């Protein structure tokens, strides 16, 4: 049973975007730490990869649950991209401590 | 002709069938932890930023949770129910992340606008005080 071409292409395109935006290289910090000390975005990318591999194995053995594992993988990579975007938009702690106004000295 | 099956053995067999049915229904009826998590996330996201700043993502997550709940009602703690719950949980997290990113973006935009005001009127506080009439 082959995995649907459109869904697989969508998944692979999402992974390519995650690589482009540097989601794999995101570092964990004190407040945002996933499993095994990885950043949450990277953690979900690892999960996505595992589930995609499982989906391929299931599809090869004709297990219909392969489609759901592909959907799980897609949801993980979508979440990783969302978390990477959030990390990019998040102000730096030092900037937050300074406040929005420049000091008049 | 006298039957070899006594009333006691029939009662014992009935009891064991009933017991097996009850135990079986409990095993399939226990709510999967992923579904519990997704239901908690629904409450958290619906009362948080996502309800204002990432409504379409939240609706998407709610739809998936509804599918998980429906599957649980039909077949109990099944693979399908756990898969739908997992996806729903991820979608709720995504809605929250999108909402936080949007909040950061809006805050930054406000700061830029305020910064422009400050640059165009050097030395003047951002509140617009004192009013133009008394300047």
Descriptive notes:
The complex is a heterodimer of chains A (105) and B (135). By secondary structure, chain A is mostly helical. In chain A, 64% of the residues lie in helices and 0% in strands. Chain A contains four helices and no strands. Chain A has helices at residues 5-20, 40-60, 66-89, 93-98. In chain A, α1 (5-20) packs parallel to α3 and α2 (40-60) runs antiparallel to α3. The longest helix of chain A is centred in the last third of the chain and has 24 residues, at 66-89. Chain B has a domain at 27-120. Chain B has 135 residues and is mainly alpha-helical. Chain B contains five helices and no strands. The longest helix of chain B has 42 residues, at 79-120. In chain B, α2 (33-46) runs antiparallel to α4 (55-75). At the A-B interface, α3 of A face α5 of B.
Major pleated sheet of chain A: none
- Please state the oligomeric state of the protein chains shown: heterodimer
Radius of gyration of chain A: 18 Å
Approximately what portion of the residues of chain A adopt beta-strand conformation? under 5%
Number of E-state strands of chain B: 0
Kindly give the count of domains of chain A: 1
Helix and strand succession of chain B? HHHHH
How far apart the termini of chain B lie comes to 118 Å
What structural class should be given to the helix and strand makeup of chain A?
mainly alpha
* Head-to-tail CA distance between termini of chain A: 70 Å
- How much of the sequence of chain B is in beta strands? under 5%
In brief:
The complex is a heterodimer of chains A (105) and B (135). By secondary structure, chain A is mainly α.
Topology:
The complex is a heterodimer of chains A (105) and B (135).
Chain A (H helix, E strand, L loop, with lengths): L4 H16 L19 H21 L5 H24 L3 H6 L7
Chain B lengths: L6 H23 L3 H14 L3 H4 L1 H21 L3 H42 L15
Helix pairs in contact in B: 2-4, 2-5, 4-5
